[in-house]
Specification:
The complex is a heterodimer of chains A (about 300) and B (about 290).
Chain A: H1 2-13, E1 29-33, H2 39-50, H3 61-64, H4 73-78, E2 84-87, E3 98-102, H5 105-118, H6 128-136, H7 146-157, E4 163-167, H8 168-173, H9 175-185, H10 192-201, H11 204-214, H12 239-242, H13 245-261, H14 269-278, H15 285-290
Parallel strand pairs in A: 1-2, 1-3, 3-4
Helix pairs in contact in A: 2-10, 6-13, 9-10, 13-14
Chain B: H1 2-12, E1 29-33, H2 39-50, H3 61-64, H4 73-78, E2 84-87, E3 98-102, H5 105-118, H6 128-136, H7 148-159, E4 165-169, H8 170-175, H9 177-187, H10 194-203, H11 206-216, H12 241-244, H13 247-263, H14 273-281
Parallel strand pairs in B: 1-2, 1-3, 3-4
Helix pairs in contact in B: 2-10, 6-13, 9-10, 13-14
């Protein structure tokens, strides 16, 4: 009870991190993704695009694109509008303007494996298969499993005007092209030079340099191991060498249908199809995501 | 400020409504649906099935299968596990095991209209077309639970096909209650005899529930202090929308959600599922990325 009283007081004064209970305003824009899917890079790209006069770095990124899990309710309420908010939440009906970044779950799993080492949540020799089993079950993050997170947004908002879907892999291939889509989504003139500048200022090299000097300043990296970097490979397909085949098979068995829908080629298509049959999933989004009850 | 202090105290004492902030336990099971989709009937069916020794009524349903949207955090916390909990929430990743009831949104809308009048959320003479527009665009008191399609869509997309998720259509439940209840029994790991199933179905009939509402509606948390001239237990039939909803309203619902409705086997009358898909594809993001 004492604890609830203290928590209650904190709430009343707005000193708590609102997280999922954030008070949402109609003009809020969300940069959304499952963790380790390029969210931070996207934040830098968008911050550098929207606020070209303030180069984004790890000391100001929480102000430029506020994070309701790092800032207090009071700080969130004071942010100039329209806010461009960072989030990892699965579907929330109040989020009306969403830029959703999706990444191949095999790379996401590998990246989160290293991130959990960095945060000291697992030891260095932890078996990747064991981690991936927990990853598939949705036990490695408080935002649902990768499949639940992605599917909850696609099922409700895909092809609707309030959602811009970006693939991390497409951003790697041509960041300027993808950022141009963001500009038109945000109704910012898609000026080529402005976009090129934002891309340059948000490059992986630039971010690595910033991380070296500022990791201690940023909520997501302070008090974590400094020998494992936050900005990691910034590549697509690292899973091919970084994940054992058994782990890849687990991921594809769980989410093969969704991966195919997103254009991620499977390593074991036959196996995923077998699973598809047993779980009643069929090809095509409508069928895969919203297949009717078996009758 | 006074309001703030009251809120702090309410929270400290655990008297805030559990709702989405409910502390979920790993052995919880949830009966989830959008409002007006047969959730109360399902609660009675399940309670009568699982607790055959105790006649289920509005007086004990909140103890047997409590409503997380109506009960306080403290009440929910004090219940021994494993708990069976009623909820209207859209997808919540913490729910370990979910029985999801889905109903034709055209019937949901028609039923919700009466419910909104009962709760005095709308004027008695609110035009149905306007109401349906608000229903489709999530501007009603149900907005915190998402729209019908958001609620159904998130659960199905995230969980359908998993052993911890059972989807039941209200219409199938109406057509053959015992057969559907048997599926539910298996989902709950109960080996129910035909006699026990039949008994649960009888004890949960619409007539039985109407009788109980007349007697106990004034005390039940969901109907207390609400208009008693409009019943909570509605018509309990499938397809009533055909005689109640104007065509424009049907068109609005089908245009917005036709693709999900078709997937669930709800036949569209104002358009083809393909035309809904085409309309959506016009603004497609995926597959049309500038490559």
């Amino acid at each position: 009870m004492m604890q609830r009283l203290i928590r209650g007081m904190q709430r009343a004064l707005g000193l708590h991190h609102p997280g999922r209970n954030l008070e949402v305003w109609p003009d809020d824009v969300f940069i959304l993704s499952f963790p380790k899917s390029g969210n931070t890079w996207t934040r830098f790209l968008i911050a550098n695009l929207v606020y070209p006069e303030t180069p984004a770095d790890f000391s100001n990124i929480n102000r430029l694109t506020p994070d309701p899990e790092a800032l207090s309710k009071r700080e969130m309420a004071k942010m100039p509008r329209p806010r461009i908010i960072k989030s990892h939440q699965y579907f929330d009906p109040r989020y009306k303007r969403v830029i959703y970044v999706v990444r191949d779950p095999r790379d996401v799993a590998l990246s989160q494996f290293h991130f959990h080492r960095k945060r000291g949540l697992i030891e260095d020799g932890y078996p990747p298969e064991k981690f991936v089993a927990r990853f598939v079950a949705g036990e490695t993050s408080p935002y649902g499993s990768w499949g639940e997170n992605v599917a909850s947004w696609l099922a409700t908002r895909e092809n609707r005007p309030g959602l811009l879907l970006l693939r991390y892999e497409d951003m790697l291939e041509d960041a300027a092209r993808e950022l141009k889509k963001v500009a038109s989504f945000l109704e910012i003139p898609p000026d080529a030079e402005r976009i090129a500048n934002a891309v340059r200022r948000s490059s992986a090299d630039e971010m690595r340099t910033l991380e070296k000097s500022q990791a201690h300043l940023w909520s997501s990296t302070k008090s974590t191991r400094q020998d494992v970097p936050f900005v990691r490979s910034a590549q697509a397909g690292g899973w091919r060498t970084g994940l054992p085949e058994g782990a890849v098979a687990q991921l594809e068995a769980a989410w093969g249908h969704l991966m195919i829908h997103l254009g991620y080629e499977l390593l074991f298509p036959a196996r995923a199809v077998a699973v598809t049959k047993t779980t009643n999933f069929d090809s095509g989004f409508a069928e895969t995501m919203l297949n009717g009850p078996s009758r | 400020m006074i309001y703030g202090i009251r809120r702090v105290l309410k929270y400290a004492l655990g008297r805030d409504i559990a709702g989405r902030t409910l502390a979920v336990r790993p052995d919880d099971t949830f009966i989830v649906s959008y409002p007006r989709s047969g959730n109360t009937w399902t609660r009675f069916l399940v309670a009568n099935l699982l607790f055959p020794g105790e006649p289920v009524s509005f007086a004990n349903i909140e103890r047997l299968i409590p409503d997380a949207e109506a009960q306080s955090s403290r009440y929910m916390k004090r219940l021994p596990g494993p708990r069976l909990i009623k909820s209207h929430q859209y997808f919540d990743h913490r729910y370990p095991k979910v029985l999801y009831i889905v109903r034709d949104p055209r019937d949901v809308a028609a039923s919700y209209y009466n419910f909104s009048r009962k709760y005095r959320h709308i004027e008695d003479n609110c035009p149905l077309e306007r109401y349906i527009g608000d229903f489709v665009h999530g501007r009603l008191s149900s907005a915190p639970w998402g729209t019908w399609a958001e609620n159904v869509g998130t659960w199905m997309a995230a969980r359908n096909g998993r052993p911890t998720f059972l989807l039941v259509r209200y219409e199938d439940l109406i057509a053959d209650t015992a057969a559907e209840l048997e599926k539910v029994a298996r989902f709950f790991g109960v080996d129910a005899s035909p006699g026990r199933l039949r008994q649960a179905v009888e004890n949960s009939s619409a007539d039985q529930l109407r009788e109980l509402e007349k007697k106990e509606g004034g005390e039940w948390v969901t109907t207390k202090n609400k208009r008693s001239d409009i019943p909570f237990i509605g018509s309990a039939v499938a397809g009533k929308w055909k005689s109640v909803l104007p065509e424009a309203a049907v068109l609005e619902i089908e245009s917005a959600w036709g693709h999900i409705m078709a997937q669930l086997g709800y036949q569209l009358v104002t358009r083809t599922p393909e035309s809904v898909e085409t309309q959506l594809a016009d603004s497609a993001v995926i597959g049309k990325q500038g490559k």
